[in-house]
């Protein structure tokens, strides 16, 4: 039966309507199937994230225990060293007093003999008394010399061990504990980057099984510092001598991390790429940062937020490389990018 007009209404055959509706529903069904597959993929990513969270927690807990064990061992060593020093002083002071005791015993013995001899002489006959008097009187006078005294400094120097003990141990701990001005954020690291356990160095490796979370770089092999700066002055040194190519600087938290284009906006950086490998891959150019022409061992980054400056220098030769001057209105994060490995130096090493 063909479509026909009837009372200003248009009628269609049932099979034609069913076919049209099925086609419309099939299109919607295909869309739902794609959505289902997409949601399955998201579910897989969520499950991967859960496993990664568990792995992160376990690894972090092990690191916490190891770090605290080092601190506990340091405190045990300090306790042992302090007690050893105390016991050594105790033995030294006791030995000194032992010698003084021997001296006073000798003195007491001599006095006892003198007293005994003098008392016997006092009971002697007048002739013997007069004969022995000069010698006896001399012995009595000699024995009347000053008695031995307790020597100065004989007691334990208690303040040496207890005075400001926690503070002194804390100060000593500062000399051996590393303090690094920038700590890397592993949640931002490109999958090709492996961070050290102390989060101060990075190296390029095979792709790591990490979640594709929003904070993570997926194109540029970069990682951000964990702390952002929105005021004050900040300085950090980076060892770059092991890397054939690298890029360092600061960026805004909102700068694009997915896909290309990270270096197009919101970045103040210096870079070194002698073989133009990254320039070809990522489109690096002098217009997107300052290109260093010579291989360096270290690079120092100085950020002055209020003055709006980011300065780069070579701390080994004390040579200025470049300074960016602008007006900062957003929180800035240090970023690091390399072809092999980089290391942020501790304040102790600068």
Automatic annotation (TrEMBL):
Residues annotated as domain B30.2/SPRY: 162-350
SMART domains recorded: PRY, SPRY
Record keywords, A-Z: Coiled coil
Keyword check for Coiled coil: yes
The keyword NAD is annotated on this UniProt entry: no
CDD domains referenced in this protein's UniProt entry, alphabetically: SPRY_PRY_TRIM35 (cd12893), UDM1_RNF168_RNF169-like (cd22249)
UniProt xrefs under PROSITE patterns: B302_SPRY
Protein name from the UniProt record: B30.2/SPRY domain-containing protein
Taxonomic lineage: Eukaryota, Metazoa, Chordata, Craniata, Vertebrata
